[in-house]
């Protein structure tokens, strides 16, 4: 269960609002429906923005973790 | 079940202040990223956000406005701490140090995300700013009626 197949890695470290969310939105179509993006951000604002983006666009954050200052999102394309 | 997509946002940008333009473009790009169709209507001081760096004005007053209010989006000054340009320099430096996007970059991002930019024809007439003095990406120069129609069909509207 811990092994999530990642289709695309996104390095969003150092980017500030609204870019982490915008970059996720610009890249979601690069993975197939059901595919997963692993996005690594450092902006604490993304903690609110990326889940909000997922709710608004009907996609899903299947896992979220923190390693030091890195905020890691596993985002599954639903549609 | 996800909410219905393609919601609409209609924004009036009346301010040409550096800080308010930041707010406007951050909200516009965020809304576009979340699947909204976004319309931005720039009027009066807000026209600066769409201007090229060219002299404008025909009459004496028009040329005065062009000189005092000339320049493009890069010349926008903050609504507080302006200090004749020092504030703008300081904020630009602070933002750059923290890796915040610049105003021209945010405007380009909005364009790339499909945000539609409209200019107020009446303000352009008053300030003697011709279409050629505006960036090519401006969809059209329109009036209040056009914006009201956009706003009436929008899910949310903002006045900045």
What does this structure look like?
The complex is a heterodimer of chains A (79) and B (160). Chain A is an alpha+beta fold. Chain A has a single domain (8-76), classed as Translation Initiation Factor IF3 (2-Layer Sandwich), CATH 3.30.110.40. Chain A has two helices and four strands. A four-stranded mixed beta sheet of chain A has the order 1-2-4-3, covered by helices on one side. In chain A, a hairpin with a 2-residue loop joins strand 3 and strand 4. The longest helix of chain B has 16 residues, at 18-33. In chain B, strands 4-3-2-1-5 form a five-stranded parallel beta sheet, with helices on both faces. With 160 residues, chain B is an alpha/beta fold. In chain B, 39% of the residues lie in helices and 15% in strands. Chain B has one domain: 3-Layer(aba) Sandwich (Hypothetical Protein Ychn, Chain: A). In chain B, helix 1 (18-33) packs parallel to helix 4 (103-112). The mean pLDDT of chain B is 90. Chain B contains six helices and five strands. Chain A binds chain B through residues 14-19, 21-22, 24-26, 49, 52-53, 55-59, 78-79, and chain B through 1-3, 5, 26, 29-30, 33-35, 98-101, 109, 113.
Task: Give the tags.
heterodimer; A: alpha+beta; Translation Initiation Factor IF3; B: alpha/beta; Hypothetical Protein Ychn, Chain: A
Helix/sheet category of chain A:
alpha+beta
Which architecture of chain A per CATH? Answer: 2-Layer Sandwich
**SSE ordering of chain A:** EHEHEE
The total of beta strands of chain B comes to 5
The largest sheet of chain A has its strands arranged as 1-2-4-3
Q: Which fold name fills CATH's third level, the topology of chain B?
A: Hypothetical Protein Ychn, Chain: A
Termini gap of chain B: 33 Å
Q: Mind telling me the CATH class of chain B?
A: Alpha Beta
Poorly predicted spans of chain A:
none
Percentage of helical residues of chain A?
25-40%
Task: Please bin the fraction of helical residues of chain B.
Answer: 25-40%
Categorize the overall geometry of chain B.
Answer: globular
Coarse structural class of chain B = alpha/beta
In DSSP terms (H or I, runs of 4 or more residues), the helix count of chain A works out at 2
Full CATH superfamily name of chain A = TusA-like domain
Q: Helices and strands of chain B, in N-to-C order?
A: EHEHHHEHEHE
Indicate the CATH class of chain A: Alpha Beta
* Gyration radius of chain A, rounded: 11 Å
- Note the total helix count of chain B: 6
Q: Per DSSP, what share of the residues of chain B sits in E-state strands of 2 or more residues?
A: 15-25%
Strand order of the largest sheet of chain B: 4-3-2-1-5
């Amino acid at each position: 269960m811990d092994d999530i197949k990642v289709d695309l890695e996104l390095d969003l470290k150092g980017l500030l609002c609204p870019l982490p969310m915008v970059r996720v939105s610009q890249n979601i179509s690069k993975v197939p429906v059901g595919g997963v993006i692993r996005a690594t951000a450092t902006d604490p604002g993304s903690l609110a923005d990326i889940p909000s983006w997922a709710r608004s666009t009907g996609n899903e954050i299947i896992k979220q973790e923190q390693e030091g200052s890195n905020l890691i999102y596993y985002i599954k394309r639903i549609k | 079940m996800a909410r219905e997509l393609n919601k609409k946002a209609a924004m009036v940008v009346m301010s040409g202040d550096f800080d308010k333009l930041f707010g406007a473009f951050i909200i516009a790009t965020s809304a576009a990223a979340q699947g909204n169709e976004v319309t931005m209507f720039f009027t009066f001081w807000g026209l600066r956000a769409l201007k090229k760096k060219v002299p404008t004005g025909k009459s004496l007053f028009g040329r005065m406005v062009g000189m005092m209010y000339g320049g493009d989006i890069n010349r926008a000054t903050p609504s507080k701490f302006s200090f004749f340009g020092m504030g703008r320099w300081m904020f630009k430096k602070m933002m750059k140090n923290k890796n915040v996007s610049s105003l021209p970059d945010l405007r380009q991002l909005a364009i790339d995300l499909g945000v539609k930019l409209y200019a107020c024809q009446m303000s352009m007439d008053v300030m003697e700013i011709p279409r050629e003095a505006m960036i090519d990406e401006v969809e059209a120069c329109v009036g209040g009626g056009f914006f009201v129609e956009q706003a009436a069909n929008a899910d949310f509207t903002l006045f900045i």
